[in-house]
Every structure is written in structure tokens, then in C-alpha cells.
Amino acid sequence: MTETETNVYDVVVVGAGPVGENVADRARAAGLSAAIVESELVGGECSYWACMPSKALLRPVIARADARRVPGLRQAVQGPLDTAAVLAHRDYFTSNWKDDGQVGWLEGIGVDLYRGHGRLDGPRRVTVEGPGGERHVLTARHAVAVSTGSRAVLPDLPGIADVKPWTSREATSAQAVPGRLVVVGGGVVGVEMATAWQALGSQVTLLVRGGGLLPRMEPFAGELVTEALTEAGADVRTGVSVEAVTREGGTVVVTTSAGDRIEADEILFATGRAPRTDDVGLETVGLTPGSWLDVDDSCLVTGTNWLYGVGDVNHRALLTHQGKYQARIAGAAIAARAAGVPLLETDPWGAHSATADHAAVPQVVFTDPEAASVGPSLAEAEQAGHRVRAVDVDLATVSGAGLYADGYRGRARMVVDLDTETVRGVTFVGPGVGELIHSATIAVAGEVPVDRLWHAVPSYPTVSEVWLRLLEAYRDGK
Q1: End of a domain among 335, 356, 377?
Q2: Is 425 among the annotated ligand-binding positions?
């Protein structure tokens, strides 16, 4: 193995997913030199095994469901989905698992790419073991950013490796539809993949240890998604866990805590995530391998003045859009510190503070119906000690919803802080509500007074008229 000459950059980024790419981009935009290290595909989990392929699988499913609710169109879309076309559409959006385009983008902004496994090797130093055995040593003048993301966690069941279970990666990249699929876990990955594969022809059994789906959202979100999955033919079982799983020939055999035996062709475990920090050299800078990174609002790792943990690795919000937001914050903070410019730490909404991580994290679950939320649920706000009140609206009563779909089913909730008279959280569940959530995010992040929102007039007849109904319900209930 030959050690190359040490290369010096202002910023070195480990992990070239969307988060790492944005850290590098912000560094270059500030006039700093930057290198990025990637052991797999440039573009990361989101581009090839998460956001893009999962939504490409789900889009035809949701579009067909919406079309079937429109008179005059319903009869034209009664047949099955074209599975080959759906999978080809998915493959297109993953660039067939090739990263040429994203590599070209890095080259275009002047970021040097090092392929291989990157590890910290003491302060401001990263070593890269290349695919051909070559070794690069990178030194950072100002900052190293760890943006290596997270990985799926499998439960500790005897012989599980022999079963070759699916994780989110296999679920989004599978090249054939399993006849029978067991999905374990009722979070976002579990319900989205249950929705997609059930619609593509699998007989899905969804096993959930807790009392319902989407436990981190308002309870009605999981209830409406459960109802829809059941109507689509999925078998949703709550309050059960997997006690044992084996593969007998080509069949997966699952034994549940209820004593049931379930046979399937594949099993997907969507039961949690862990940080990809177990082999990135944390021990060389006094940190614990495999741990989540504790960071401040500029994403600077606690106890350092040069190491940043951006994206999933800091466990603040395991969402691509939130990680990219953090990357913009971290990039601005790195540039300011490099230039000796004071950070705007006294301004919680300034360029150097990821305040939205605490108060205004939006999320869309692309099931049928969609579920979208921002800010805390009613229970979370109350548990945090806030004096709040929730108002609910049946989305079917909104004029635009009736035009959007016959038999529209959905619900909206607005959580109002009674001391500040601002919106703390909003949840929408129903067809098409993913496009509503940014208006709620602006209201929450901007701390817009309810009295001011009264003058933000929704267009008629759109589903966004739900805002008027929510505000009326709040005023009338005073």
C-alpha cells in the first residue's frame, strides 16, 4: 500500500450524500477549497435507496388512487398497474444506480472527489482507503464534516442473517414483486413500502409492535392510513412483534408474539436506524465509535472547534430536507469561522443556527391518504409544558376537497400556543395534502400570529381553504 502525498483543503467532507454535497457546495460558494469522500455512490442513500426510488414507486400508486376518485376518469384506470413500467420509472430516477451525473456536478462546482472509505485520523485529518488499495491523506485547514448518514437496524433474532431479510434498501431496489411480503414496523418506511408493494401486487402483512401506525404523528394519521391499507387488501396487525423468523427453502416463516405463523416470500424490517459512525475514526478524536454526534445549532460537534456532524449522524431529524437545511447552516458557519466573522449566535433565526430542527420540522408520508405534519403534535406540545389548544377540521367539509376527489376522506389539526397566539404544529391527512404542508411550515417557522393568518386568504375552491376552516374553528371556540 502506497501513501500518497498529503493534500490540504479548507474543508473535508466525509460522505457524499445530499447533505455532504451541500456542505461542500456552501464551502465552495464561500470561496473555500473542499474535498469530499464517498465509499459508495455519490448522491447517497436518498438518491438510490430512499427518497427518490421510494417516491418513484409510490407516485403511480397515488396517482391511480386519486384518478379512481374522479368521475369520468374512474373507469379508465380500473386495471392493474404496469409493474414493469413502474420499476423502470424507479430505475430512471435512481439513474440506474450510477452516479455519473452527480460526480459531474461536483466537478462543476470545483469539489475534489475521493472514492474510498474515509476515516478521521486525529484532528483535521482524514485518511481514505481507495478501492484499489491506494491511500490518500487529507488535511483540513478549517473543518471536517462527517455526513455519513444512517443505516437500517435489524432486530437481534437468532439466524436472521440466514433469512436475508429486506431493509429499506432492498425494498426500494427490488427487481420483482414478491407474492407475499411481511413488513415489520409501522413507521414511515413500513407504511410507505406496504402501500407501494400492496398496490404492485404483493399480499402484504404489516406487523406493528405498538398500538397503531405512524406513532410520531397525531393518532388520527395512523388510523386513516390503517383504514386505507386494510381496504386495499393489506393485513394490518398491531400489538404484535416477531418472535422468530426462518427461511425454509424459498419461504420465510414468521412466528409472532401472538403465536401466529405467517408464511411469505420476503420480509422487510423497518424497525429503526443507527448512525454510520462505527468506522469513521471517532476514537481518534476522543469520541465513541457508532454513536450519534452531539452538536450545537451550527452542527459543530460538542467539545471541538473543527468537527461538524451534519444530517442523520446528529439524530436531530432523520430527513433529507432537514439534513440539507443543516448543511446550509453548517456551510455558513464554517465560512464565517474561517473568515473570523462572529457567528449570529444571538439570533435564533440567523444564518448560523439550525433553529428549525427544534420547532418546525416538516414531513410528508407518501401513503394513500398522504399524511403531513410540521411542529409538535398536541401530545408533544403538552408534554413540553406549553399551554396549547388544538382545533380539528374534517377535510371532507372543505369545498376544494370535494372537487379534488369523490368521497374525500381526511382530517386537519392545528395546535395553537395560547400564550403567544401562534401556531405550534399542524397535521394534515388526506389525498394531496403533501402540497399543503409548506404553508403550515411557514406559519410555524415564522411564528405568524393567528390574527395575522386570518388575513391570508385561501384561494377558492382549493383544499387550502382548510386554513379558513381551522381559523374559524379556533375563533369560534374562544
Answers
A1: 356
A2: no
The reply to whether 353 sits in an annotated binding site is no
- Is 132 annotated to bind ligand? no
Judge whether 309 is annotated as a binding position: no
What does the block give as the cell for 8? 490540504
Q: Is 190 flagged in the annotation as binding?
A: yes
Both 11 and 145 in a single domain?
yes
Tell whether the model's pLDDT for residue 223 goes beyond 70: yes
Q: For residue 1, what pLDDT band results from cuts at 50, 70 and 90?
A: very low
Predicted local confidence at residue 3, as pLDDT: 59
**Is 20 annotated to bind ligand?**
no
CATH number for the domain spanning 441: value is 3.30.390.30
209 belongs to a structural domain? yes
The answer on pLDDT for 477 being more than 50 is yes
247 and 348 part of one domain: no
Indicate if 285 and 146 belong to the same structural domain: yes
What pLDDT was estimated at residue 2? 58
277 is in an annotated binding site: no
115-126 per-residue burial string, b: 16 or more CB within 10 A, e: under 16: bbbbbbbeebbb
Same domain, 425 and 285: no
The total of structural domains in the chain comes to 3
Cell numbers 411481511 label which residue? 182
Query: Taking the chain, what is the end-to-end CA distance rounded to the nearest angstrom?
Result: 73
Report pLDDT for 4.
67
191 is in an annotated binding site: yes
Do residues 465 and 417 both lie within one domain?
Answer: yes
Assigned domain for 463 exists: yes
Has 374 been labeled as part of a binding site?
no
Q: 148 a known binding residue?
A: yes
pLDDT digits (tens, 9 = 90+) for 293-351: 999 999 999 999 999 999 999 999 999 999 999 999 999 999 999 999 988 766 888 88
**118 annotated to a ligand binding site:** yes
**Which of 237, 271, 305 is the last residue in one of the domains?**
271
Digit-coded pLDDT (tens) for 388-409: 999 999 999 999 999 999 999 9
The pTM of the whole model exceeds 0.85? yes
Q: Is the pLDDT of residue 48 over 80?
A: yes
- β-pairing verdict for 388-394 and 411-417: antiparallel
Q: Are 130 and 3 in contact (CB under 8 A)?
A: no
Do both 390 and 445 map to the same domain? yes
- Which residues are CB-neighbours of 389 under 8 A, at least 6 positions away? 415, 416, 418, 474, 477
Residue 125 three-state SS? strand
Is 257 found in the same domain as 202? Answer: yes
pLDDT for residue 190: 98
Q: Are 220 and 253 contained in the same domain?
A: yes
Residue 478 has pLDDT above 90, yes or no: no
